[in-house]
Amino acid sequence: YSLDVKEALRLLSVSLSKPSLPETLWKDVLLDRFVDLDVIVANRFATEPDEPQSFLIGEHQLEIRRPKVVLRVSTHGEWILAFRTYERAINFAFKYRRDELETYANYIQDLFASWHPSLHLKIINYDRAARNLIAQSHSLLFSDTQRLRACENAHLSAGGVFSVSGPSQRPDPRGKDKRSSKRPENSDICRNYNNGRCERGRDCRYKHACLGCKGTTHVVKDC
After folding, report:
1. Nearest alpha carbon to residue 32 among 10, 56, 8
2. Cα 198 to chain center, whole Å?
3. What span, in angstroms and rounded, lies between the C-alpha atoms of 174 and 2?
4. Nearest-CA neighbor of 68 among 45, 35, 84?
5. Which UniProt keywords apply (predicted)?
6. Structural contact between residues 87 and 81, judged by C-beta atoms closer than 8 angstroms
7. What does the pLDDT look like over 202-219, one tens digit per residue?
8. How far apart are CA 165 and CA 142, in angstroms?
9. Residue 63: beta bridge partners?
């Protein structure tokens, strides 16, 4: 496809069997580049087509895209929806990669099954990092899950570089932790806490309180 991606996209545009996928992502699929699953979710039930508006200025054509409301993959179900859509597109373009993608999908599904739902966002972020790593390497396949362990540890292990909330502190020689158990005061209320996704607990810099009444015994959905 890289020899003439424009012609490949033209043929794709008239194909009657191509799977559903936002038009802006097909070029990334054909060139085996990173594909943003957030775009798939955001366009799943969009009221407007994912196509640019074209303007002819002299001999030059200018394409402008109107900004859309951003919707990100944030749950296990949304990830399945987005990844399966992506998987169908890849299998349509590269029919020999079916087993490779199925191996990766099962691997991520096992992670979702073994982690508490409150931590599923970590898995979603890891998947994004893993697919980005695969896109950057010509020798790494989706099925090479063992070679993804370092990336997995960075995002999912307790001591991973993307899991630790801040720099570790040396223990107090008097036997007390220098960090106060009291949550730092801040007038801003934590939105992640109200959505059930705050992972910082007492270390959170924002106030854990209801967004509605500002009470500290419940979240906004229970107000």
Report:
1. 8
2. 17
3. 64
4. 45
5. Metal-binding, Zinc, Zinc-finger
6. no
7. 778 778 887 777 778 887
8. 29
9. 54
